[in-house]
Write a structure and sequence with these properties.
By secondary structure, this protein is α/β, with parallel strands linked by helices. The chain has 7 helices and 9 strands; from the N terminus they run E-H-E-E-E-H-E-E-H-E-H-E-H-H-E-H. It starts with 7 loop residues before the first strand and ends with a helix. The N terminus is likely disordered.
């Protein structure tokens, strides 16, 4: 499914670990990387746009697309559903672009099955308490939602050894350097 330098990079880890911030830095450094826009059943947060931040789908439409086989992966997370539309990834691959997927651990496991050539990177916090601080600092979730995300995060952290590449986000610049090194290394291999 991949050719030339059209690698697929799966960036995963618990909620609040800084996946989005690291990917933003990575894309500044490697502008050829394209993001796959995930689908979700959750409501848009302030400032989010449909088709840009997520494809916001109602639960019935999400289920219809699951039944039609339109997702590479999908998962329930904190009371909402998230997934990667096959069309989002395949269009970019066919155009020869490397693709970045920002997904949770459940989805990363499914991608491992559907796209074994995808490069999987687990982003870990320096310590568990850092996740609570980041989630509370966002100001986007109620305390019940934060507690639910933290409960899931505890389980997700146990999975870190399943992933061939791991980056600890203890310092954003240092973590971005480590992530960039992994991505550039894989892109170089795919061109050779």
């Amino acid at each position: 499914m991949t050719s030339g330098n059209s690698c697929v990079f799966v960036i995963t880890g618990p909620s609040g670990v800084g996946k989005g911030s690291l990917i933003a830095r990575l894309r500044e450094r490697i502008p050829s990387l394209e993001m796959s826009v995930s689908a979700t059943t959750r409501k848009p947060r302030s400032g989010e746009s449909d088709g840009v931040d997520y494809h916001f789908l109602d639960p019935a439409e999400f289920d219809r697309r699951v039944a039609a086989g339109e997702f590479l992966e999908y998962a329930d997370y904190s009371g909402n559903r998230y997934g990667t539309l096959r069309s989002e990834v395949e269009a970019r691959i066919e155009a020869g672009h490397p693709v970045v997927l920002e997904i949770e651990v459940q989805g990363a496991r499914q991608i491992r099955e559907t796209m074994p050539s995808a490069v999987q990177v687990f982003i870990a916090p320096p310590e568990f308490d850092a996740l609570r601080s980041r989630l509370e600092g966002r100001g986007t979730d109620r305390s019940e939602a934060i507690e639910a995300r933290l409960a899931v995060a505890e389980q997700e952290l146990l999975a870190r050894d399943e992933f061939p590449h791991r980056v600890v986000n203890d310092d954003l610049d240092r973590a971005a350097d480590a992530l960039e090194a992994i991505v550039r290394g894989k892109l170089s291999q795919s061109q050779g």
